[in-house]
Amino acid sequence: MFATNAPVQPIDPDKIRPEIQALQPQLVAFRRQIHQQPELGFKERLTAAAIASKLTEWQIPHQTGIAQTGIVAMIQGRKTSFRLKTLAIRADMDALPIQEANDVPYKSQHDGVMHACGHDGHTAIALMTAYYLSRHQNDFAGMVKIIFQPAEEGPGGAKPTIEAGVLTNPDVNAIIGLHLWNNLPLGTIGVRSGALMAAVEQFDLTIQGKGGHGAMPHQTVDSIVVASQIVSALQTIVSRNVNPIDSAVVTVGKFTAGKARNVIADTASLSGTVRYFSPDLADFFHQRIEAIVAGICASHGATYQLDYIKFYPPVINDPKITDLVRSIATDLVETPLGVVPECQTMGGEDMAFFLQKVPGCYFFLGAANPDRSLAYPHHHPRFDFDETALSTGVEMFVRCVEKYCN
Predict the structure, then answer these.
(1) Residue 82 — φ and ψ, nearest 5°?
(2) What is the DSSP secondary structure assignment for residue 253, as one 8-state letter?
(3) Helix, strand, coil: what percent of the chain each, to 5?
(4) Which of 64, 75, 76, 167 could join 133 in a cystine, given CB atoms 3.0 to 4.6 angstroms apart?
(5) 14 labelled catalytic
(6) How many angstroms separate the CA atoms of 53 and 164, rounded?
């Protein structure tokens, strides 16, 4: 169901309340302001200052300096309820080390840095959601915490943000978040219970052999031959060691070795990534890769160094919170494609750490519009999205607050 070339499905304007429709110019303006001043992880000082300035102007209580540059805004509902609950909304703020290739008035002004994944839109949606809720506190009960998180793209800002206490005082009962998604056309929302996005792990491997003359291989331990066998053997992990029902990927994306055609290289380096959905596989790939590397190296008389890093666990949506989000999305996007349940991706997200702590739902907001050349993939230097999705994002968040907290 992923289709960036699928026709755009306009959302019925009557489905978005007039007060939120009226926020569209501010949504676009703030998104473009952030887009022009992109910042890498834990360096989002201008972005954080812009958010804090608006929250201060609107007299919304907030805390800054969380995990260096993060912010948490708090909006207290005034509606009475038998049980007061706290719902968190999470938005990421950071950009990517990419040189923007778009020729637009709001093009990045920071050389080599670009919002190429939609985080500028996430920030704008969350900020204007805070504004709307602060003006309609009589419409919901309990507390809403809006978390502006640094460093999703790396090295990972969710864990230090959680460790800073954003899920306590008061305790968060549930959390939601969205990702503007150019794999889905405008007018659709991707909602799925269970595994939505994959765990992200990576490895760097150095093979130490014994170099020599290309005409005298018997005097050497050919690191390229050893590394090549490892590359082939790693592909058997998914095909022969993982249950076919469980999706997983092992990719070697970098292979470096040798300097001359007639010299047998003494070292070879491999770098790759591992992706999977099932939490049961959390320790499996590291152990299996190590076993394969050790065995092949031993058989050739080579040695190795393996550096294995676990970045993010899989994004696992809670069934009950997902049902709530799906019911709202189904009412909002009455389009031919509408709500897309089969929207899994092997991409990763550190929203996963929040979902390990409290039940929640992370969902995709279709934002591609091929008719306007707004369908380039995420992390592409010409990535951009249809900004009419922004008000839809606010409407989704506001409806989730009203339905969950009431």
Answers:
(1) -60, -40
(2) E
(3) 35, 25, 40
(4) 75
(5) no
(6) 22
Q: Which of 39, 44, 92, 94 is catalytic?
A: 94
pLDDT band at 80 (very low <50, low <70, confident <90, very high): confident
Percent of the chain past pLDDT 90, that is, above it, reads: 93
- In 3D space, the residue among 79, 362, 324 whose CA is nearest the CA of residue 194 turns out to be 362
Residue whose C-alpha is closest to residue 154's, from 71, 35, 40: 40
Strands (E), 186-302: 189-190, 194-197, 199-208, 212-213, 248-257, 263-264, 267-276
Q: Is the pLDDT of residue 2 over 50?
A: no
Return the pLDDT at 1: 42
Our CA dihedral for 130, 135, 141, 147, rounded to 10 degrees, sits at: 10
* CA 404/CA 406 separation, integer angstroms: 6
pLDDT in tens, 195-211: 999 999 999 999 999 99
Is 152 among the residues known to form the active site? yes
pLDDT at residue 293 tops 90: yes
The residue from 92, 152, 384, 386 that is catalytic is: 152
Average pLDDT across the chain, whole number: 96
Could you tell me whether strands 212-213 and 248-257 are parallel, antiparallel, or unpaired per DSSP bridges?
unpaired
Over residues 288-313, mean pLDDT = 98
Q: How far apart are CA 74 and CA 147, in angstroms?
A: 9
Three-class SS state of 307 = strand
Angle at CA of residue 355, ends 354 and 356, nearest 5°:
90
| Tokens of residue 300, six digits | 């050739």
Q: Which amino acid is at 182?
A: N
How far out from the chain centre does Cα 351 lie?
A: 7
Helix axes 119-134, 389-405, angle to 10 degrees: 50
Q: pTM of the entire structure?
A: 0.95
